[in-house]
């Protein structure tokens, strides 16, 4: 009684919420080369992780601005994916 429970040093794995932004102009799509460890060197649309309290649309605009310097307009939600990369202990929604 009265003893404090210690928090486990190993946290359970949980999905990360992220966005990918399909930026188009004149029928062309903007793609970037990945630099991080996950998918390094592959081509992908701009995007990233959703910050706490942020809407998906705000996240999309922020990520495009941070990664390209562009300001986007006419942001629309297109769909959702559920991607599990077991070999990397990653799960993105």
Structural topology:
Layout (H helix, E strand, L loop, with lengths): L17 E3 L3 E2 L2 E2 L2 E2 L9 E2 L2 E3 L6 H13 L14 E3 L4 E3 L1
Structural class: alpha+beta
Radius of gyration: 17 Å
The CATH H-level homologous superfamily: Nucleoside Triphosphate Pyrophosphohydrolase
CATH architecture: Alpha-Beta Complex
Alpha-carbon distance between the two ends:
41 Å
Could you characterize what this model shows?
- The chain is α+β, with helices and mostly antiparallel strands and 93 residues long.
- It has one domain: Nucleoside Triphosphate Pyrophosphohydrolase, CATH 3.90.79.
- The chain has one helix and eight strands, in the order ββββββαββ.
- The protein has one helix spanning 56-68, and strands at 18-20, 24-25, 28-29, 32-33, 43-44, 47-49, 83-85, 90-92.
- The strands form four sheets. A two-stranded antiparallel sheet has the order 1-6. Strands 2-3 form a two-stranded antiparallel sheet. A two-stranded antiparallel ribbon has the order 4-5.
- The longest helix is centred in the middle third of the chain and has 13 residues, at 56-68.
- It is globular and about 50 Å long.
- It starts with 17 loop residues before the first strand and ends with a strand.
